[in-house]
């Protein structure tokens, strides 16, 4: 019996009874001369080596399956930790002030952390990530607007996916009320901060 892992081409068409939009398997098994390989068997394994699909070709060499099992984007989770003292704006005096108790208070609160609590679709290749941001010892719910930018091979042989996320924070939500006022009552420091994240994920990679 002939077993192939090479002729599988995912199809976006959802099978009856399966979750809409989840990819199934469709393959066409042929010899070098173009003849169909009858009763060929195609197996699909996950990243741990566990078999998730085993399908046999028909008389025309066609192999197909229902939706492949596996996690959906909605079941994904995000966890991020940043060393607060690593802030770098290109100005040493400003960075020192941002590390002080007026802002990040890095001596008391070493880490900035984010933990997701859910994910909901927000359009084609877009999601809203719901989570909790802990900044300077204060934890607040923060949503991220997430966009999927594409997937491709990297120079090190990995498969890499790119994302961009954006949100806006209010300083006072994290007890950062320091400000300077110049003449005419103009504040030098804005009340809000726009956050832009460029993210790359490598398939199969795990956190240390």
Automatic annotation (TrEMBL):
Pfam families: YceI. SUPFAM superfamilies: YceI-like. It comes from the Bacteria. Residues 34-202 form the Lipid/polyisoprenoid-binding YceI-like domain. Residues 1-21 are annotated as: Disordered. PANTHER family: PROTEIN YCEI. Belongs to the UPF0312 family. This is YceI family protein. It comes from Nonomuraea helvata.
